[in-house]
Structure formats: structure tokens, C-alpha cells
Amino acid sequence: MRLKLVPVAVALAIACAQAMAGPVLRVLAWPGYAEPEVVREFETKTGARVELTVIDSDESMWQKLSAHDGADFDVFAVNTAELQRYIQAKLVQPVDTDKIPNTLTQLPRFRQRASIAGLVHVQAGVAQTYAIPFTYSEMGLIYDRRQISDPPDSIAALWDTRYQGKVIAYSGGTHNFSLAAQMLGAPSPFKIDTALWPRAVDALVDLRRNVLGFYNQPDESVRLFQRHKAALMYANYGTQQLHLLKAQGVDAGYVIPREGALAWLDCWAITRRARDATLAHAWIDQLLSDQAGRLLVQRQGLASTTTESASSRPEVRLLWLEPVEDAGRRETLWARIRSGDRASRVLAP
């Protein structure tokens, strides 16, 4: 009988230790979004411990949050386009802006949340906010000034055979199909019609042949760029990558192609099954603090929604991300392209 009680005693001891340790906030975010200083200040102020998980793609985020009905995380950073499928899947809850006083310090265009597509939805006649803007960037082209004297002015430069084996691109299928559609002159890079699919696949097969390697995270792209002396890179993380490269002494230039640039606006959202919604709101408020905004700009080279910065360039043509026609199909086809399949096999049933 005594032996049977041991596991119970151990379980109780663990449960008590966890209770004494205080609450835990489970955060899912992109690289550089939760700086150590910001996390420490939040933990000091709230007495909670932050459990941070860093992701490297929209698909990875979806897989983690859709597992167990979103119960594994409390708050996460997501772009406005991707946010829509979390709302549709009922994986997020409305945000109470009254519990986030630092929203009052945001730039006017980000306080007008109803004017930002996808942030506000009407439920039972009531307009509800589902996420708070945090940071944004366009996806431009980064080039090595020592190898390319004239800045590239078109997305087509990524396919230019003069740079074969010297191009680095992002590994996400959803964005790459948008990139291909944009290069092909589609009316919308987010809605590929039936007739355009074969051409988009052909274009990405050609891109794969021209590219030295694909990256997921910003620091990975910097290592690839330096190690292989790349000439050109598609900057999925925008000015964040430019900032990191310059910090490593790379003479890098950054341009927005004439076709315009895909651009993302990342926001903080709260999962429907968050353990402590009040704590999640406090986290969002902390991430809108002066300290967090300053580190975001100075250390990561990204734009803050609370202050104007060098990254804020209203004159450039931005194509804000929108939900695509079929994210699952894009990722499946991209996986086949990455694996080396011929174009004729990629679209095969």
C-alpha cells in the first residue's frame, strides 16, 4: 500500500511546487519580438514566468496553435492575413483594449483599428477587436553593393541567371506563391486563379534552380548571405535582416521593387483557451511600452507602432498581406518544388 502512495505523493509535491512558482504565460512569437529585458521587466511587474516559443513560419505557427485547440499557448504574434483563419477556427478571443492602456500611445493610424482589414469583426451586432498592432515591414530586396553596382529594380532580379547560385530566398510556400504571382503580373498576388497555377509553379521551379539556399529565420539568412557571399536576397523579414547584415559589417543595400512590396503587419492576439486572459493583456501592454518599442527599432531594425522610425516609409507601394485562396495547397505544392520535383509532377494529383 505504501508503494502505491509514492507516485501520488510525488505528483502532489510537483503540483505544489508549480503553484508556488506562480503563473506562467506561454508566448508564441517571431525572432526578436520578446527581448530579454522586456521579458524580465514583465516578470518582475507581474510575478509571472514567461515561457517563450519562437517560430519561423506561418505554417509552423498554425500547426502549434491548432494542436489541442490552441490550449498550449496564451498569447501570440500573428500578421493580419493569418489572423483571419484563427478567428474562423475560433482559436482566439476578443481583446479588451481598456486593459491595454498603452494602445493610447500608438500612432494614430494604428489606433484606428477598424480601418485595418481583419482586426475588427462584428459578432452579434457588436464590433470586437481581435488583435493589437505591434510591428510591420515590407519585404524588399537586399543586395551586396560590392557585387551589384546598380540596385535591382524588379522582383525579376531573383530569377536573373547572372546571379545563379548567389540568390537567397525565404522558404515559406504561401509567400513564395504570392511572389511568383506578383512577378507574373497577376491582378492579386493573394488570389491565384486556375489558369495561372501552372505558370506560378513553373516560375518557382525556376527560382529553386537559381537560388543558393532558403532560410526560415532572420539570423539564418544572415549566416547564409555571409558564408556563401550571396549577391541578392529576398527579405521576408524586411529591414530586420538589413539591420542584422549591417551589424555584421556587410555593405548591403535595400530596395523596394517597382512592382511594389508584399508587407506584413504583425499583431498580438490572445488564444481562446488562454489560462489567464488578464495576464495576456498585461503582456500586450508591456510590448507596447517605450522600452519594447525602442529595442524593436534599435536592435531589430523593425518599425514600431508606437513611434515613427526610419522604417516608416509612406512613399513606397505596399501590398499588405491578405488571406490567400488556399494556404494548404500552396504549402503542399511548395514542398514538392523544394524536394526537386519537375513542374509536371508538382501539379499532379
SSE order and pairing:
Layout: H1 2-20, E1 24-29, H2 36-46, E2 49-54, H3 58-66, E3 75-79, H4 80-88, E4 92-93, H5 108-111, E5 120-123, E6 126-129, E7 132-138, E8 141-144, E9 167-170, H6 173-183, H7 197-210, E10 211-215, H8 218-227, E11 232-234, H9 239-247, E12 252-255, E13 261-271, H10 277-287, H11 290-300, E14 303-304, E15 318-320, H12 327-338, H13 343-346
Parallel strand pairs: 1-2, 1-3, 9-10, 9-11, 13-15
Antiparallel strand pairs: 3-13, 4-13, 5-6, 7-13, 7-14, 8-11, 8-12
Helix pairs in contact: 2-10, 6-7, 6-12, 7-12, 8-9
In short:
The chain contains 13 helices and 15 strands.
Q: Can you characterise this structure?
A:
This protein is α/β, with parallel strands linked by helices. The longest helix is centred in the N-terminal third of the chain and has 19 residues, at 2-20. Strands 1, 2, 3, 4, 7, 13, 14 and 15 form an 8-stranded mixed sheet that branches. It starts with a helix and ends with a helix. The protein is globular. It has 2 domains: 2-136 and 264-313, Periplasmic binding protein-like II (D-Maltodextrin-Binding Protein, domain 2, 3-Layer(aba) Sandwich); 138-262 and 323-346, Periplasmic binding protein-like II (D-Maltodextrin-Binding Protein, domain 2), CATH 3.40.190.10. Residues 1-20 have low confidence and may be disordered. It is built from 13 helices and 15 strands.
